[in-house]
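User: Hey, quick favor. My workstation is busy. Could you predict this chain's structure for me?
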Amino acid sequence: MELFSCAGDRGLAPLAVRMRPKTIAEYVGQEHILGEGSLLRRAIEGDFLRSVILYGPPGVGKTTLAYVMSQAGRGEFITVSATTTGVSELKQIIAQAKEKRAFYGTRTTLFIDEIQRLNKGQQDVLLPAVEDGVIILIGATTENPFFEVNPALLSRSQIYQLRPLSEENLRTLVRRAISSAEGLSDLNVVIANDALQHLITVANGDARVLLNTLEFAAVTTVPGPDGVRHLTVEIIEEAAQAQRVTYDKSGDNHYDVVSAFIKSMRGSDPDAALYWFARMIYANEDPRFIVRRIIVHASEDVGMADPNAMLMAHAAANALEWVGMPEARIPIAQAIIYIATAPKSNSVVTATDEALHTVASTSSEPVPVHLRDAHYKGASRLGHGVGYKYPHDYPHHYVNQQYMPANLSDVKFYKPSDQGREKLIRERLEWFAKFGAGRK
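Assistant: No problem, here it is.
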């Protein structure tokens, strides 16, 4: 599959392909890895390229950058798609690359689009050829390569993460497309400032969406009396239909959005938490997954500072099961707002982890005799339960009594904060200590 074969066919190729740059100087965006003097730019300009994996969301220039590399480098440049290639084709490419290197001193660069779709067998075929330098590999993927690509292959490649294009990058692409002979200059297009801003918003950092939407809007707009095709917000809206949301339910973007959602609730920002919740819902995330995260957060980051947070989280889960979406979005949002605005404490997490660590790192002492069960057959004759003090028989339903094993009699795991209800809990525990309550 020749991904770049249509680049020279200006009549049939989409605008995004027709505007594909030929040199690194024409490339727009990714300044963090392609700025003047950067390692990758020097490698491309000096034709010192080594195996690389280009990783980033759709439309940020991965294939375009590979095309620029193909134009700058010497030797043969072969392109395949991981969705259509197989082990036999890869073996043939490698065999031919060996012959060309041996007989002609020619190197072979192999570009694999969607490299994450290669199975283990296909990746294993590539590994020796990449390691020996028989081929220079350029892989492109929208998914985190650390999740999907053979670690041995990763270790022999440089990994570059491409970012969504900035608004200024997208404006540059629009201006270039409107004025270029290979673009839309023959259509005499003028785009209003508010329409341009809306187009950039809709593109969401994706150059392909930007240019395809621009082209569709331009070719379907009737020229005015002045012969100019005036693109308005309404025309851009109609051409775009609906804004895309970048979200991959199985990749790292999924984890990034979920992380932002949790951190917004933890940071007591209900507006940001609702925004990330809406992003997930808009992208068809499983609402049960969202509710599960809310339940965890209610205990992990609110905990005893406001125990009602856990009740609200479970109420949202119950509403989801009984009401379903889209109506359940409202009680779920209510739980999000409640938890985001609740007092925060992670004392439950700290106490639990310290208790687990103590169990794992100390000897397991016998249960104190007075705490042992005296009801099973023969237990009372062994003295189990003797000396136990029933708290409800004492004032304030509390009595000084040791509950920990002897070797841990002075250990405390739970240290309540001064937030919300925990402040009252702390005062109560301090009151117990003051009047001699404890484990002595």
